[in-house]
Every structure is written in structure tokens, then in C-alpha cells.
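Final report, closing paragraph on structural work. Over the funding period we assembled a curated collection of sequence-structure pairs, and we close with a single example.
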Amino acid sequence: MTDNPSETGGVANIGVIGLAVMGSNLARNLASREGNTVAVYNRTQARTQELIAEHGDLGFVAAESIDEFVSSLSTPRTAIIMVQAGKGTDAVIEQLAERFEAGDIIVDGGNANFHDTIRRERDLRERGLNFVGAGISGGEEGALRGPSIMPGGSAEAWATLEPILRSIAAVAEGEPCVTHIGTDGAGHFVKMVHNGIEYADMQLIAEAYDLLRRVGGHRVEDLVELFRSWNEGDLQSYLIEITAEVLAQRDADTGRPLVDVILDEAGSKGTGVWTVQNALGLGVPVSGIGEAVFARAVSSKPTQRAAVQRVLRRRPDPVETPEGFEDDVRAALYASKVVAYAQGFDLIVAGAREYGWDVDLGAIARIWRAGCIIRAQFLNRIVDAYQNDPELESLLVDPYFADAVAHGEAAWRRIVALAAASGVPAPGFSSALSYFDSLASERLPAALIQGQRDFFGAHTYRRTDKEGTFHTRWAQDRREVETEPSTH
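Its predicted structure, as stored:
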């Protein structure tokens, strides 16, 4: 180091490392808020120079080296890392850790895997440093104008970060969309689930669009107005809003709706996959999120799709739509969204239990009301649900959501049946309905599955009429014996 940071008297209360679009927008947001002085550093100095050239009036403290960056920070030194997840993040963390002192704070604002965040927080805590994994949602625009922020980490780190993050967060009904989620990896876990719900929500909207076009015969121009009208009621959300905007866009080259010239292969950045993987490990059914991930995977296999299409002799003709078809699609969309959010919150509960986080579900719903991609009017109802009962078993048993699903159930069933009869895939709608029916069924065929498992693997079973664990000696005399529970 060229200087000892403890002796230089740094002037910046917050620093940002990594000045690609997200990082530079976040730095601009921070610098525009009263009380913040922002130090900035990027490994490629040209990006720092570009930010200063365009927005130097915001008063950044620009650093040409990591040592200069650290020296510019006041204590406790607080730096937000906005670099590529993985090894790049680890490298920057180590650079800072070598220079920071006890009580200083390193914040990872990227889309990190929460397991990595748990590891990093533990390692840095042993070195006397605070590490915070902060989920930041809202994309490039949110980073600049106000994101939804989901920080984890220690209470000590939160005491320093709270006024800074509240100053830049989106605001919903007068409340900044940021709260301390919990210790170590809690913030990145909740951000992962947010993104998983986002996958499901987008898939459900896409299925509604597909049914309206392929079965309902609507022109794209008609759907623009329909989605805009939906955005004025209880479906009001950022994703419904931008759906109308995408559908309204015309391709400059062909004059056709842009949606008709975009290749129908959807990409993925991994957080949806992480959500499903972790849900499987925790034993939480997130079928809506899973089907959304799988739908993107199917879309991205054009040669396989083409091969199947070549061997098909005929496809079902679209079924004639009943009166009120559009209202049925809307009801099915709403009911399926309720299921997707219910599954997401179930996963947060399970994660909190597994990793020892004290998570406030109502607070999470509050900070998702603005700034983030899944922001929606609907979230106010979730806030109310958890205020009324913090121990709610499922969103589906909250009176408001139970009534909403009951009101739309008949339409939901009509749409799923109509989609199947017409040969139009609706995995999101279908899986959501199956999940609801599974919870609503007094008895499930799992009894047969458990009998099969006991037959071929002696996995044991429990009975409905008495306590204990049992095994039938299938290959012997078929007598039932009481036994210890199987661990397989």
C-alpha cells in the first residue's frame, strides 16, 4: 500500500467497485442522494474516466488503484462490489480484505449463489470483517432510479448500511424498499427466490398471450389494449405493463409486430435453476418455477423441436372458445400467479428454517412492491396476509387469496382443459392447478407409491389407523411387522 488508510482520513462514506452499466448506475444513484460521497474504482480505468466525464458533477472520488480507492473511504470502510459473479468477485473481495481493517464492510451486490455468500461471510468474519450479500433487483433502470434491495449480513453491518441503502432504494407508499433480510446468505437467497418467481410470472403471462392468440384468434394489436386494461386492475404489475409495451412494438424492417420476428428461444442466467435445485434439496414443491425453467429449456432446443414436428401427421385444431374466454384466461392467470408466489414464500420459509435466518415475510413482500421486476399491486395483499398471520401455513389459506382462487377456479379449469384439447402448451397454468388440487385432495396416490417403495426396497410405511412404522414381508409370508423407519 502507498498509504495507511487509517491515517489518511478518507472522505467517501461508500465506494463502488465495478463500473459496468449496473455498477455505474448504482454509483450515480448513491452520489445523487444527500449525505453520500461516493468513491469509484474499476480495474479498467477507461470506465472510471467515462463515468467522471459524463457525470463528474455528482462529485465522485475517482481512484486509479485499489489502494487509492481504499484510502478514500472513511471508517468503517464500506465498499459495494458490482463485478461478475464467481472468481471475479472472490478476487476483488480478497483485494479489499487484505487492505480493510476490523469492522469494515464488503458488500456483494451481484447475483451471487447464496452458498458462496455463506462461505464468504464466514471466512471474512474470521478475519474481523463484515461481509454482506445484497440482492439488488430492478435492472439497470432500477439501479439508477431506485431498486429493491435485499441485504443479508450482520446487525453491525446493517447499522452502517441502513441509511445509505434507504437513501437509494425505490419507495412504495412512503416506505423505502429495503430491509435487513437476515444473517450471512439470507439476502442472496431471497433474491434468488425473487428471480424464481419472476421466471414463473413471465411464463404465465406468455401462456396467457399464447392462448389468446392461438386459441382465441386475437391479433397482436388487440392484445396490446387487453394487457393494458389488465394492468389497471388486480393484475397491475411491471411485467403486465411491459408485456403491453413489447406487443405494441413494430419491427422497423418488416413492419410486423416485433414479437413475431423475435426468435422463440428464451435465455436464462441461472437464478431460476438455482431456485429449483435448492427447492428440491429442501423438499419444497416449486412446480410453477420449475415448469418455467423447463419451458425455457424446451424453447432452446430448436433441432429437437423440428425433429418432432416432422413426424407429426396432424395437430389438434383449436377448440372453439366459449363466451367470456378472455375473462377466463385472466382468472387462470391470476390464480396461477397466487400459486407461484405461494410456492416462492414457502421456499423462503424452508430456507430460513434450514439456515437459521429470522426472516420477516411481510417485510419481504413490502420491499418487492416497487423497484424490482415482480413489483405488483398484488404484493400489498401479501403484506396484509402476513400482517394478519405471521405464521400463515400458505398464502392459499389467507382469506383474500382463498376467495380469489375459489372465484377463479372454474375458469382456471376451463382454460387448462381448453389448452390441452387445442394442443397449446400451458405448463405453468397446468402445474399450478395440479399443485392446488394436490393440496385440496383429502387423499393422494402417494399411499400406493409408498407401498411400491416398501415392496422393492423395504422403505417402510406408516398407517392411518395406528402409530408406528411398518414393513410388509412381501417376498416371504406377506406378514406386516413393526420396524424402525427407513433412512432411504
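The first strand starts at residue 14 and ends at 17. The chain is about 55% helix and 10% strand. We thank the funder for supporting this effort.
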